[in-house]
Amino acid sequence: MNRKQTTPKYETAPKNMDTGCGSCAQKQKSDLWTVAKLAESMQMRGLDIGRNRLHTWLREHGFTDRSHWKGQNLPTRKALDAGFMVIDYVESWNKGRDWMITRPSIRITPLGRAYFTGLFVQEGRGL
């Protein structure tokens, strides 16, 4: 029994979906790291840095600023425009006042991870 194919072959082939790029990093939540996770990754590579020292280093080099929102570290326009960081809004429950709080948080993109790790090593602060 010969049957005719009812759908063209180009429609039945699996489609290759592009996962995106650095500019659409907000769509890729799993690829975004916190500063603490970046510091942990740098420590695994033998670089001598922790979360607090990395925050200080980022502020000293102009990638974050503390004066924007209640003393919290937030990315500068320089870091946002370069695609090194994005702002992610995190919800948390305030038990004392019994309501949800939404606060901004730094997330580092894959491009930012490579750039900051390379810059840190070039500066000679690693190993």
Automatic annotation (TrEMBL):
Residues 1-20 are annotated as: Disordered. It holds the Pfam family ANT. Residues 30-120 form the Antirepressor protein C-terminal domain. It comes from the Bacteria. This is Phage antirepressor KilAC domain-containing protein. The lineage of its organism: Bacteria, Bacillati, Bacillota, Clostridia, Eubacteriales.
